[in-house]
């Protein structure tokens, strides 16, 4: 399996290179050169298999010869051994045709653990084999950072630095990042918003001298291995509900477009999916794009679903590349327009293709709070605000897809966002007992200004030999 960049200027890479480098050297995102497929007969056998076995069958199609089958199975088993549910990503039925896919049973209580725990295993394996240390740097709106730190906390090969926007992550998220007490783990609180964090990380990657000097690598949602690991639960969930014999729809609370892009890949691989619904909070760039064909940045708004407070959905570039039939020339043009004018236009043909696979909706904080309350009343389930955005939008869409079951992704545990949940329901969601001491642990955090030089200096100084 070979990978190419959406901007078309780098060399072809194998999985190991893609895993370790995160972003392609030309500033583009790696995509597989062809989409591997899974035949109908094989899909029919999935409903009898464990999560781990399906994970192996789906992902080995992307990993080439980087791992032996035995090694890869071992890594998958280790990655999911810390989940507190035996199904890893269980389905919960809400109504006749509507299900929740719970993705928050990992160590940091959000769906990002599903990918990050496996990435931790894969990094350790590859770096040990090469006898090489690496520096992981990540920007986070809260959940990615915590998940990445949890994934590397026992690593002997990786130093990790996480940039998060000061004051804009929940206290649980912050404490998950600042209380690990490991010498290879560094929480950096930035004076700025998530997009500033993300821009700084991009600049560090584009600084080839710095990149080399610390052996920089990224595990943000632009890392292909993240997307790859997320493809799996679309297969497990859809086949558990009757695919490939019937089509399934998904609604995905969306920020950076990584999670829902994984659904699109599953469809490309042969999983019969009906509608993929993009659910946005008031940062609704993707919803506006589907309505108007114009992708335009707007001022970032802070909402009660902060992990989706994103102005530019980085992974959308991967979809655009596919919708433009692999024309990196067109992608470079669109991205130049985005840099220059803050927007680009989709051609009518591309917009039609986009609307064939996706629909979208947006919801306000007020409706998000109402949804949390209604779900508790109707189904006795406490949900997090991101999941509530998903359910609010799914309920707008569900009438259009009467035939197929709808699965909405539950992306975080409600206790990760206690303020919003309490405000809506009056109920304070309890953290799982393994977090009993979270508020008594000592916090270690470095405040940083929005300055590339300052942050690069901190990183160079702190990496372990
Ligand atoms: C990251 C995150 C999202 C958004 O996922 P993307 O892959 O960025 O679209 C939604 N909900 C929660 C809880 C998250 O942590």
Would you write up a description of this structure?
It contains 19 helices and 15 strands. The chain is an alpha/beta fold. It has helices at 15-21, 40-45, 51-59, 69-79, 112-130, 143-152, 171-178, 194-206, 208-213, 224-240, 258-268, 285-292, 316-323, 328-341, 348-357, 365-379, 385-397, 418-425, 452-462, and strands at 3-5, 30-32, 91-95, 98-102, 134-139, 158-165, 185-190, 216-217, 248-253, 273-280, 294-296, 343-345, 358-362, 406-410, 446-448. α3 packs across α4, α3 (51-59) packs across α10 (224-240) and α4 crosses α5 (112-130). It has a domain at 91-107 and 226-425: Rossmann fold (3-Layer(aba) Sandwich). The longest helix has 19 residues, at 112-130. Residues 110, 112, 143, 221, 253-259, 307-308, 386, 411-412 line the site of pyridoxal-5'-phosphate.
Largest sheet: 6 strands, mixed
CATH class of the domain at 91-107 and 226-425: Alpha Beta
Distinct ligand kinds: pyridoxal-5'-phosphate
Strand composition percent: 15-25%
Q: Please identify the structural class as seen in this structure.
A: alpha/beta
- C-alpha Rg (nearest Å): 21 Å
| Spatial separation of the terminal alpha carbons | 34 Å
Low-confidence stretches: none
Continuous helix count: 19
CATH fold naming of the domain at 91-107 and 226-425: Rossmann fold
The CATH architecture assignment of the domain at 91-107 and 226-425 turns out to be 3-Layer(aba) Sandwich
Globular, elongated, flat, extended or rod-shaped: what is the shape? globular
Arithmetic mean pLDDT: 95
Biggest sheet, spatial arrangement of strands:
3-4-14-9-10-13
Count of DSSP E strands? Answer: 15
Estimated helix fraction: 40-55%
